[in-house]
Amino acid sequence: MKKIFSLLPVFLMTIFLTSCSDDDDVVDRLRTISDVPASAEVSVDYLPINVFEIPVETDLDLRQLIEDELGTDEALDQVKEVELDDMDIVFLNAEDQENFDFVNSVTLGIRTDDLDYKEVAFLDEIPSGATTLDLNTLDDVFIDDYAKSESLKLVVQFESTEDATDLNLNMEMEFDAKLDPSL
């Protein structure tokens, strides 16, 4: 009986040490990259009154921003679960507008030369007098293939109630991603 009790700690320790799963190892290898900043200036010569959302496109080199954050382009293939975490559109100026009062709603999407349009953020109600719009980002919309593309385009769609001429905006974004060295 004493022999059995003396082997019990060894047995329990063996069970404890072997109970770690491969999933735990994967989680330990993942590194989260948070709040990778990106910004893009958008100029629109003329935005007419529209009840439909007219798209405005601009280029964004998110691939380069991620490479800069990682310090190497070799790690880009190890990046996964890239998602838009925060999106603000800042009104810089316009010839005939002082703020976003001419906008009813705004939608932000992305596309590449090879990948279809994907919506990533929106704002349905624009506060009166706002000069900065804090868009609602869509949860669990991963844009890995888009972020790694060299032809990423931001597509902003405004539904407006008035014309805007010589509209200048700054789009301020933050992205989150995970880095998995096992990929």
Give the strand content. over 45%
CATH architecture call:
Sandwich
Spatial arrangement of strands, main beta sheet: 1-8-3-6-5-4-7-2
What Rg do the Cα atoms give? 24 Å
Structural class: alpha+beta
First-to-last CA distance: 51 Å
CATH fold descriptor: Jelly Rolls
Average pLDDT for all residues: 82
Q: Count the helices. How many?
A: 4
Domain module tally: 1
Instruction: Describe the global form.
Output: elongated
Unreliable stretches? 22-27
User: Under the CATH scheme, which class?
Assistant: Mainly Beta
Structure description:
It is a single chain. The chain is α+β, with helices and mostly antiparallel strands and 183 residues long. The protein has one domain (33-179): Jelly Rolls (Sandwich), CATH 2.60.120. Helices cover 21% and strands 48% of the residues. It has helices at residues 2-18, 22-29, 62-70, 144-148, and strands spanning 31-47, 50-59, 79-93, 103-111, 118-123, 132-137, 153-160, 164-179. The longest helix has 17 residues, at 2-18. Residues 22-27 have low confidence and may be disordered.
Keywords:
183 residues, 4 helices, single chain, 8-stranded antiparallel β-sheet, elongated, 8 strands, Jelly Rolls, alpha+beta, 21% helix
Topology, pairings included?
Layout: H1 2-18, H2 22-29, E1 31-47, E2 50-59, H3 62-70, E3 79-93, E4 103-111, E5 118-123, E6 132-137, H4 144-148, E7 153-160, E8 164-179
Antiparallel strand pairs: 1-8, 2-7, 3-6, 3-8, 4-5, 4-7, 5-6
Task: Tell me briefly what this model is.
The protein is of the alpha+beta class and 183 residues long.
